[in-house]
């Protein structure tokens, strides 16, 4: 019976590691897309850092990416940047690939 218990604990540990990695990748993606948006808005380096952190925080409002898309799109349009939801979603996808790459390199 201990073999099954050991396997169960191993699966649970793997699940926990996978979930933590997914969280870290998403947070990194949000930071990167925040930097992308800040560049489009012409923010200073200090403002860019603060804005990227705000985008990461925005992701905690609700499950999924809709809260991040709303924040980015609203902020970009308010800053006078011509964009649309499709461009923001493309940036999210592009930055997700980059975030995964960065996380894999940091291991």
Q: What keyword list fits this structure?
A:
107 residues, mainly alpha, 83% helix, elongated, DUF1476 domain-containing protein, ATPase_inh_sub_z
Note down, in words, how this protein is organized.
This is DUF1476 domain-containing protein. It comes from Sphingomonas canadensis. Pfam families: ATPaseInh_sub_z. It is a single chain. The chain is mostly helical and 107 residues long. It has a single domain (26-106), classed as Domain of unknown function DUF1476 (Major Prion Protein, Orthogonal Bundle), CATH 1.10.790.20. It is built from 4 helices and no strands. The radius of gyration is 17 Å and the shape is elongated.
State the major sheet. none
Distance between the termini: 34 Å
Shape: elongated
The value of Rg in angstroms is: 17 Å
CATH T-level topology: Major Prion Protein
SSE series? HHHH
Pfam families: ATPaseInh_sub_z
Protein name: DUF1476 domain-containing protein
Describe the SSE topology.
Elements: H1 2-41, H2 45-58, H3 66-78, H4 85-106
